[in-house]
Design brief:
The chain is an alpha/beta fold. The chain has helices at residues 14-25, 43-57, 80-108, 129-149, 168-174, 200-212, 224-242, and strands spanning 5-9, 29-33, 62-65, 112-116, 155-161, 219-222. Bound molecules: NADP nicotinamide-adenine-dinucleotide phosphate.
Length: 247
């Protein structure tokens, strides 16, 4: 099998650096984009990085939109700037990476887009409205793109991990600001309920296996917490669907 060329954001640590390491160890080429080299919220820098990658390796096979963070807090306490910044990184930067890479994938009539969403892309949670909204947006984009790009041989998969054992929650906690509205004092602003996080190696291995599949799934939940959370949410949704609410 020929070596794949990966382009991966959020490669400075956590899941991104683990995936970059495992893909390289498997013999693939990895263009690992970190915040120090490229500001992914600047479309011109993203276009430059993608063009450099394509010029260096002649193609891009796998695009992983992984960079992301969680803005925590009650919705009423979040500033407009914090909400917009959350979407800039988790949604618009990912969209810009796709805008920059898709011409190469479409020309090649192949490629795999791997969107790192979250259990939070499938459920809601108090104190996480900005994050869940950004991941739901990423999922909506991805589901539509999966159908739009299928005729060109481009595959789209959404990875939905539960808690992962990375610095994610630490940086989430570091961004925590004291609440400004006393009514929300009891809110869990940093997701303290994460119990048995999945190791990043396990999530990265699942992604490596995913890109090997001849017919990869649209969605890949990873971790028993993700499976349980998604099942509970869909069960409630089906119950709503099947209940006769009006006379
Ligand atoms: N950890 C979890 O529990 C969990 C669960 C479900 C989904 N996820 C998702 O998994 C992905 C990777 O997260 P992780 O767990 O590996 O967390 P992490 O260790 O905090 O790594 C996040 C990566 O995203 C980058 N990033 C964050 N904010 C950025 C910004 N404003 N501009 C550019 N890059 C930025 C970070 O770069 P810097 O190092 O420069 O900050 C880092 O490379 C994220 O999309 C996250 O939403 C995580």
């Amino acid at each position: 099998m020929r070596r794949r060329v990966w382009l991966l954001t959020g490669a400075s640590g956590g899941l991104g650096s683990t995936l970059a390491r495992l893909a390289s160890a498997a013999g693939d080429e990895v263009v690992a984009i970190g915040r120090k080299s490229v500001d992914i919220t600047d479309p011109a820098q993203v276009r430059w990085a993608v063009a450099e990658a394509a010029a260096t390796f002649g193609r891009i096979d796998v695009v992983v939109n992984n960079a992301g963070y969680a803005a925590a807090g009650a919705f009423e306490e979040l500033s407009d700037a914090a909400l917009r910044e959350q979407f800039e990184v988790n949604f618009f930067a990912a969209a810009d990476v796709l805008r920059a890479t898709l011409p190469y994938l479409r020309a090649a009539r192949s490629g795999h887009i791997v969107q790192i969403s979250s259990l939070a892309g499938q459920i809601g949670a108090p104190g996480m409205s900005a994050y869940t909204a950004s991941k739901h947006a990423l999922e909506g984009l991805s589901v539509s793109l999966a159908e739009e790009l299928a005729p060109f041989g481009i595959r789209v998969s959404i990875v939905e991990p539960g808690a992962i054992n990375t610095g994610f929650r630490r940086s989430w906690a570091e961004r925590e600001r004291p609440g400004t509205i006393a009514d929300y004092d009891g809110l869990d602003r940093i997701g303290r309920d994460a119990r048995r996080p999945t190791e990043p190696e396990e999530v990265a291995a699942a992604i490596l296996a995913l890109v090997d599949l001849p017919e990869p799934p649209l969605r890949l939940p990873v971790g028993s917490d993700a499976a349980a959370g998604i099942r509970a949410a869909r069960t409630r949704q089906l119950a709503d669907l099947e209940t006769r609410w009006t006379a």
